[in-house]
Amino acid sequence: MSRLRLAVLDLYNGIPNQGMRCIREIVEQFSDSVEYEVFDVRARHQLPDLDFDIYISSGGPGDPREGDGVWEGLWGQWLDDVMTYNAAHDRKKFVLFICHSFQMAVHHFGLAEVTARRSLSFGTFPMHLTDEGAEDPIFTGLDDPFTAADFRRFQVIQPDQDRLEELGATILAIEKDRPHVDLERATMAIRWTPEIVGTQFHPEADADGMLEHFSRPDIKTEVIAEHGRQKWISLMADLSDPTKISHTHDTVIPGFLRRAIRVLCPEPEIARG
Prior knowledge:
The chain has two domains: 4-205 and 246-264, Rossmann fold; 207-240, no CATH class. Helices cover 38% and strands 25% of the residues. The protein has ten helices and nine strands. It has helices at residues 19-28, 41-44, 71-88, 100-109, 131-134, 161-167, 207-215, 217-227, 229-240, 245-264; strands at residues 4-10, 34-40, 54-57, 94-98, 113-129, 146-157, 170-175, 187-191, 196-199. It has a nine-stranded mixed β-sheet, sandwiched between helices. Helix 7 (207-215) packs antiparallel against helix 9 (229-240) and helix 8 (217-227) crosses helix 9 (229-240). The two termini are 24 Å apart.
């Protein structure tokens, strides 16, 4: 059986990051079933065609509502082409959006407001599942709330319920509840269709890699200077707990890929004698 083809859309604009390493490592765990190719969307204006079966579009820096006048238009056209293809074919393309890509997709379809946060969201935070999220296959096995890595300067808020219903999209997860803070809770995950889903947090984040990164003296000093010692201590504790970031890392993207593989390459029925 030939392997499925997966395209990773790299939106990091050539900036060194942990996200692409983590995505590659997760995808490579499925190498028996999937072969993948990376496309440098922002720096080189590379976009995959429709010959791929599965797409993962990464996080990245900057304002998700803007670009260089070229790449964001190409990305939007790619997304429209996938949606058009899926509407016309029984064998559909699977897509996962992460953080920056999630915000871009929400903005592209007008599902909610995408705005700048008052301050950077930095660290690990609890995410709360909606009723739909509790039943969604990418969250199977996660607690409510579950812990996820969240690093972003922008947010998805004020979802348009009429627009969500028009597209058949559902909200799967929302930001932690902070009754003492007079701010709206952000939308943290949406499912567009049975094949297309996205998260505003970083499900690819791996605890071991983050522990190593944030244990570096220079990074530790930087985090404490910008966010305080308690934030660094809390972050390290969550990264060391196997029920938190590690569990999310092992659940969300692997769950997305397993479902895509199961749907696109179903096990043949064994003939009964």
